[in-house]
Amino acid sequence: MEEVETCPAQRLLKMLSGKWKAEIFRLSVESPLRFNTLLRQIQGSNKQSLATALKELEEEGLLEKTTIKLKPLHIEYNLTEKGKALIPVFQQLEGLS
Amino acid sequence: MEEVETCPAQRLLKMLSGKWKAEIFRLSVESPLRFNTLLRQIQGSNKQSLATALKELEEEGLLEKTTIKLKPLHIEYNLTEKGKALIPVFQQLEGLS
DNA sequence: ACAATAGGTCAATTTTTTTTGACTACCCTG
DNA sequence: CAGGGTAGTCAAAAAAAATTGACCTATTGT
After folding, report:
1. Hey, which residues does A59 pair with through a beta bridge?
2. Which of B24, B73, B77, B82 is the Cys-Cys partner for B33 at CB 3.0 to 4.6 Å?
């Protein structure tokens, strides 16, 4: 399908609007995320959806994936600077809810 | 389906993320909107989608519908105060795009 | 060695969103 | 009174997003 891209905020807005993204984002502000922990934290979600959401947030440059090579050897997702720049946007949205 | 509503920004975010909403919003900042004009302005859109988007934006309290009872007798959609409060949110989003 | 945990992928299905086309009804102009 | 503009609605179809269940690999703990 032909994407025409008129409004500059549209793409970002659409990317953020997936069913679990806002919640993932909110949790990422509190602490680094881990996949299975997230799966347990967000009731009603599922692997596939979380995997897709995390990948898209990563591709958008809002989260970054790090392999922690010590002790239990796991993966962490952290907010990037661009991600942190979105915090006030969420706060404003919450203020209007 | 059971909606659980965890993140407060989620509902608003989802409501704003429809395919044509950002563009409708952007145009509404410039001037009052009229249905058929919008249909011509937003290439690729269609009646049904615009009607749905306008209704949802209205229900959310971001736009208000007014019947202009003079001259050509038509309907206008204008940004409400709540709608105007969203302008800086869009600006921030555009800044990050 | 065995089972559990972590972090996923894939294909198929279901649900939601968007689009299409047909159809209304009310003015206004020539 | 015919044609055009305005502002829609409705049902059906198509497209996109979300969910399910099976499967997979690697690392740990016992």
Report:
1. none
2. B77
| CB pairs A-B closer than 8 Å | 82
Within 8 A by CB and 6+ apart from B70, the residues are: none
Is residue A51 domain-resident? yes
Residue span of the structural domain in which A26 resides? 15-96
Q: Domains in chain A: how many in total?
A: 1
Question: A79 — alpha (psi -120 to 50), left (phi > 0) or beta?
Answer: beta
Task: Please report where in the chains the tokens 């069913």 appear, as a residue.
Answer: A19
Query: Is some CB atom of chain B closer than 8 A to the CB atom of A41?
Result: no
Q: Which run of H or E residues covers position B38?
A: helix B35-41
* B8 domain-assigned: no
Instruction: Single out the residue of B66, B39, B38, B25 nearest to residue A13, CA to CA.
Output: B25
Does residue B54 contact residue B40 with C-beta atoms inside 8 Å? no
Nearest CA in chain B to A81: B96
Q: List, for residues A11-63, the tens digit of each pLDDT value.
A: 899 999 999 999 999 999 999 999 999 999 999 999 999 999 999 999 999 99
